[in-house]
Write a structure and sequence with these properties.
Elements (H helix, E strand, L loop, with lengths): L2 E9 L2 H17 L3 E5 L13 E7 L2 H9 L1 H10 L3 E9 L3
Antiparallel strand pairs: 1-3, 1-4, 2-3
Helix pairs in contact: 1-3
Pfam families: DUF1330
Organism: Rhodovulum strictum
Protein name: DUF1330 domain-containing protein
């Protein structure tokens, strides 16, 4: 089964977060991830609103978690820490 990586983000330091984004994209792609939503328009219906929302599709839950734990993604994440407030989850799809 596939999986979705879903991030809800408030960017507090655009320069540092930009460095994260430059590195995170290739790390995600290297693990089979493809972006299906990345900062587009949204309507918050419930819960806490975050101005940036990102969804990536992965071939499996395990691939998404392996991406998160990879040295490449962790190097990218170093730039997001302190430059954003985030929630990130991976959810298995029903396909």
């Amino acid at each position: 089964m596939g999986a979705l990586w879903i991030a809800h983000v408030t960017v507090t330091d655009p320069v540092a977060y930009g460095r994260y984004a430059e590195l995170a994209g290739p790390a995600i792609a290297a693990h089979g991830g493809t972006f299906i939503a990345r900062g587009g328009r949204f309507v918050q219906l419930e819960g806490r609103e975050r101005p940036r929302n990102v969804v990536a599709r992965f071939p499996s839950l395990e691939a998404a978690v392996a991406c998160y734990n990879s040295p490449e993604y962790q190097a990218a994440l170093d730039h997001a820490r302190g430059a954003s407030e985030r929630e990130l989850m991976v959810v298995e799809t029903t396909d």
